Amino acid sequence: MDKLQELTQRLYEEGLSKGKAEGEEILARAKAEAEAIVLKAKEEAEQIVSAAEKEAAGFRTKVEGDVKMAAVQAVQATRADIEQLIVAKVVDGPVSAALSEPDFLKGIIAEVAKHFSAQEPQDLSLVLPERLKKELEPFLAGELAQIAGKGVEASFSKKVAGGFRIGPRDGSYFISLTDTDFQALIGAYLRPATKKLLFGE
């Protein structure tokens, strides 16, 4: 009976010892797997964070570049507007006033007509500002007709604010001496000087 009990006790202890060892092995394996999972998750999390930081840095660089470019463009546009306003102030008013003055206009038209008649007498076509019709019609019918030596066909247009257009009546070409033409011509010369004066360029 003692031997049976002793054998039973030994089997029980061996089974218990074996079960405990297996349990510890399973527990150790589970713990190792859990640590591997945590480590992998941590690495993946670090990769996600790193990728997000890179993306954020790239986005920030792009936004900074876009903002810088927009600022440069805004400054350039503002400078161009200032330059344009100054040139317009200096040029537009005086040029428009001069080319809307009937006596001044008569003198220029007479000089141009003389050159046309000196080269080869021909009928002329002339386009003048509509608002100066009353002041210029007597000059066209009298003095200009004598200077040109041939027929002068004059028309008045609301599209011409100041100055005039002149050319052979056959329409082969014309010379435009309007206020817009003079403003563009003078403005082209003044803009670089204005830019240098304002911005040191």
Structure description:
The chain has four helices and four strands. A hairpin with a 6-residue loop joins strand 3 and strand 4. The mean pLDDT is 75. It has a four-stranded mixed β-sheet with strand order 2-1-3-4. The protein has a domain at 99-196: hypothetical protein PF0899 fold, CATH 3.30.2320.30. Helix 1 (2-98) crosses helix 4 (179-199) and helix 2 packs parallel to helix 3. It has 201 residues and is an alpha+beta fold.
The rounded Rg comes to 48 Å
Question: Which structural class is indicated by helix and strand composition?
Answer: alpha+beta
Instruction: Give the CATH architecture of the domain at 99-196.
Output: 2-Layer Sandwich
Q: Based on Cα principal axes, name the global outline.
A: rod-shaped
CATH superfamily of the domain at 99-196: ATP synthase, E subunit, C-terminal
Enumerate the strands of the largest sheet in spatial order, edge to edge or round the barrel: 2-1-3-4
The averaged pLDDT comes out at 75
The topology string of helices and strands comes to HHEHEEEH
- What's the count of strands? 4
Low-pLDDT residue spans: none
Major sheet: 4 strands, mixed
Count of helical segments? Answer: 4
User: Quaternary arrangement of the chains shown?
Assistant: single chain
Tell me the helix content.
Answer: over 70%
Please give the alpha-carbon distance between the first and last residues.
117 Å
Task: Identify the notable features of this structure and list them briefly.
alpha+beta; hypothetical protein PF0899 fold; 76% helix; rod-shaped
